[in-house]
Amino acid sequence: MRERFSRFMQGRYGSDQFGRFLMVVGMISILLHIVIDFSPLYYIAIASLLFGYYRMLSRNFYKRRRENSKYLELKSKVLSRLPERKARDPYHRIFKCPGCGQKVRVPKGRGKVAIRCPKCSREFIRKT
Ligand SMILES: [Zn+2]
């Protein structure tokens, strides 16, 4: 059975990032369709699953690779437009030096401390 399957898949395109994306979109659309009963979702689900399987079984590697690279290009464009999520650091506070504006990172929870700016070596007192 496994051998049969691998023989069947021989020379076929199989899975790639765009294929997995189509499958995920299909699954999510089906689930959403069940939950909110919005019928266009059903067609979106069927279309993306069918297209996903079609691509997997396709023998046209050239076209499939082009679709995949287009998908990856679009994905990186979309991701680069999203606002960058700021990494929260719960252990430090950032202060600006009143002299030169240099940002100084100080451990949190030490009460009032004198901070020396590493750039202009001016000292200032802040509550951490
Ligand atoms: Zn400074």
Structure description:
- The structure is a single chain.
- With 128 residues, this protein is α+β, with helices and mostly antiparallel strands.
- It has 2 domains: 2-81, no CATH class; 92-127.
- It contains 4 helices and 4 strands; from the N terminus they run ααααββββ.
- It has helices at residues 2-9, 17-36, 39-57, 61-81, and strands at residues 92-96, 103-107, 112-116, 123-127.
- The strands form 2 sheets. Strands 1-2 form a two-stranded antiparallel sheet. The protein has a two-stranded antiparallel sheet with strand order 3-4.
- A hairpin with a 6-residue loop joins strand 1 (92-96) and strand 2.
- Helix 2 (17-36) runs antiparallel to helix 3 (39-57).
- The chain is elongated.
- Zinc ion (ZN) is lined by residues 97, 99-100, 102, 117, 119-120, 122.
Salient structural properties:
single chain; 128 residues; alpha+beta; 2 domains; two-stranded antiparallel ribbon; 4 helices; 4 strands; elongated; binds zinc ion
